[in-house]
Design goal:
Residues 194-290 form the Pirin C-terminal domain. With 327 residues, the protein is mostly beta strands. It has helices at residues 69-72, 278-293, and strands at 11-13, 26-28, 31-35, 41-47, 58-68, 76-82, 85-93, 96-100, 105-108, 112-117, 122-128, 134-143, 154-159, 161-165, 168-174, 176-177, 180-181, 190-197, 202-206, 212-219, 222-224, 227-229, 234-237, 243-248, 253-260, 267-270, 273-275. The chain has 2 helices and 27 strands. It starts with 10 loop residues before the first strand and ends in a 34-residue tail after the last helix. The radius of gyration is 19 Å and the shape is globular. The protein has a domain at 31-181: Jelly Rolls (Sandwich), CATH 2.60.120.10. The longest helix has 16 residues, at 278-293.
């Protein structure tokens, strides 16, 4: 998925130590961002934000739907670039057609992970299918460590691994939880899972104490060790926890559990690029504009998305000031 903001903020992403005690639950609020479509489908973005920019290598969380496609026009995201990251597409309802510049054409469906590793550079498009009436899911980005961030791009698709915890259905799409392990290729220790809590569920979820975790509430509220988190909120848990207790009300709940070892590298994110410096971001943007928008095909970093019935997305204008490193 693209960041379609016309004036995207440049952001230095780094591990931010939680100020509260080891058992505290930090609630992060989402901001609403318009995304594609003739009438701009709204998404709720909880990462990145200045208060917390990463959770493990997870660096971008967009939560959307349930969206009435007849009203918004659904998802229509033209070809756009990525560098230095993986995109993880995960749906609760609806379908999306994915095309990319390494020749992949796939349909994203509920319960199936579509994972695109951008590496040195890739372009892709995302459009909800004609038969989709309701679109509902999350789009996630994973920052690639420096040792692999310039690797050749590739795409893969996996069914989620399934398990149960105290009557709660667990679908693991990245990493391992409750004895279920995903086959997805990741390059740092990570966890990604959907948990569907039945009415009045009370479940203790095992956690890796070396991970920090984020719990995105899709349906709720859900209480985390007594702290309530409501729909679209992201609850942050700092490293050191071995378990978290989740309780649902009479309507049950659904969460997306994200986790990973604190990411030890500083990142610079702007638009759809992840780099390590302001100059890298400027270079990525320039190559996209020359290769794809102007058609010069410089060194082929991004390639072309075949079969998309329209033009690629031009990059926004860069800020007029240079990014000042922080941290």
């Amino acid at each position: 998925m693209s960041n379609l903001e016309r004036e995207p903020a440049e952001l230095v992403c780094e591990y931010i130590e939680a100020a509260a005690g080891p058992d505290a639950v930090e609630i992060l609020q989402a901001r609403e961002v318009p995304l594609g479509g003739p009438r701009a489908m709204p998404v709720h973005r909880t990462l990145p934000q200045r208060r917390r920019t990463t959770i493990g290598a997870w660096c971008f969380v967009d939560h959307y739907g349930p969206d009435d496609v007849s009203t918004t026009g659904g998802m229509v995201v033209p070809p756009h670039p990525h560098t230095g990251l993986q995109t993880a597409s995960w749906l609760f309802a609806g379908e999306i057609e994915h095309r990319d510049s390494v020749g992949s054409r796939a349909t994203v469906r509920p319960g199936e992970l579509n994972l695109m590793t951008a590496g040195r550079g890739i372009a892709h498009s995302e459009v909800s299918t004609p038969g989709t009436t309701t679109l509902h899911g999350v789009q996630l980005w994973i920052a690639l460590p420096g040792r692999v961030r310039d690797a050749t791009a590739f795409f893969e698709r996996h069914d989620a691994a399934r398990a149960t915890l105290d009557g709660t259905e667990v679908r693991v799409f990245i990493g391992e939880l409750a004895g279920a392990r995903s086959a997805a290729s990741v390059f740092s220790p990570l966890l990604g899972a959907q948990l569907d809590l039945p009415p009045h569920a009370d479940v203790t979820v095992p956690l890796d104490p070396g991970f920090e975790h984020g719990i995105l509430v899709d349906a709720g509220p859900v209480h985390l060790d007594g702290t309530a988190a409501t729909r679209t909120e992201l609850a942050y848990l700092k490293p050191g926890r071995a378990v978290v207790r989740l309780r649902a009300g009479q309507d049950g709940g659904r969460i997306v559990l994200l986790g990973g070892e604190p990411f030890g590298e500083q990142l610079v994110m702007w638009w759809n690029f992840i780099g390590r410096s302001h100059d890298e971001i400027v270079a990525f943007r320039g190559q996209w504009q020359r290769e794809v928008i102007a058609g010069e095909r410089a060194d082929g970093r991004f390639g072309a998305v075949d079969g998309y019935p329209g033009r690629a997305l031009p990059a926004p204008e860069l800020p007029t000031v240079r990014l000042k490193p922080r941290g």
